[in-house]
Amino acid sequence: MRLALPHDGAMRDLSDHALLSLNTATVRKQGDLLAIVEACARHGIRAVSPWRDQVAQVGLGRAVRAVKDAGLKLSGYCRGGMFPADAAHAREARDDNRRAVDEAAALGAPCLVLVVGGLPQFSRPGSAPSKDLSTAHAMVEDGIGALLEYARGAGMPLAIEPLHPMYAADRACVNTLAHALDLCDRLDPDRGGALGVALDVYHVWWDPLLHAQIERAGRERMLAYHVCDWLVPTRDLLLDRGMMGDGVVDLRRIRAAVEGVGFDGFVEVEIFSKDWWARPMDEVLATVVERFRTVV
Ligand code: ZN
User: Which helix (H) or strand (E) holds 200?
Assistant: First the structure.
């Protein structure tokens, strides 16, 4: 059975890249956050999604001013999560995530992206080693549930980002959109917008249930949409994401589904790549803009 999808005509027009957001990790090796913000102005990019370490490097106050002075919007803030921890590191995990919520609010982000963590020794280094993935799943659910109360108080939506299964041990043991939505339904049954998902094509393009789960997410749960491409072969588990159009992801079909449920936020370009990090910032951003307009 082929799922019904909206016609191309229902999709948004990306030809002037007004809806482009740059995940600032895409050019993290070429300059600090202030340099990236300046580069966005040169390329007519109107939104960013910064990483916590990049914000910390220049200081939260300077980051807030730079974003505001440049008139940039945010499409998210990266990232909270890494919930599984042993008892000695539980408080660290809790406090660190609360700070992430506060920073996201200071920057004016529409959501805090959650990379939920895997086994405790990887998500909170120093934790006692474990192979108990079921307990890690439970820690993730408990951690999101506890943070959700704090985040509601700050008015900051949380976006669970399911990661490709190759990251289950070290980065995220939530690996499908279905699993992320199960968590959302249990922790936030009223679908009020406090908890949802960040859908990144790199992590979910392979999933046979993807389109059905996008329908299930609906507009209320779809808080962020990230694009890049899947290269064949992929030579590095973390740092070989492709530029849009260089790989095998059916970007237009996935965007049609996401916009088909009413998603109207920025389309965020997020590429971690040794190849693209080795090129000048302006070359990377010019390529991002050109591909965004033509293949996303
Ligand atoms: Zn992402």
Answer: strand 195-200
What's the one-letter identity of residue 22?
A: L
Dist. CA 126–CA 123, nearest whole Å:
9
280 alpha carbon to ligand 1 midpoint, in Å? Answer: 22
CA 21 to ligand 1 centroid distance, Å: 12
What CA–CA distance (Å, rounded) separates 167 from 174?
A: 9
Number of alpha carbons in the 13 Å side-chain half-sphere of residue 236: 10
What would the mean pLDDT of 76-84 be, rounded to a whole number? Answer: 98
CA distance 4 to 209: 14
Residue 166: phi and psi, rounded to 5, are -65, -15
The CA 70 to ligand 1 mean position distance, Å, reads 24
Distance 270 CA to ligand 1 centre (A): 6
Q: What is the DSSP letter of 129?
A: P
93-137 per-position pLDDT tens digit: 999 999 999 999 999 999 999 999 999 999 999 999 999 999 999
Give the tens place of pLDDT for each residue, 214-230: 999 999 999 999 999 99
Contacts of 84 (CB under 8 A, 6+ apart): 93, 117, 118, 119, 120, 123, 124, 127, 135, 136, 139, 140, 143, 173
Rounded to the nearest angstrom, the distance between the alpha carbon of 141 and the centre of ligand 1 is 20
Is the pTM for the entire model greater than 0.90? Answer: yes
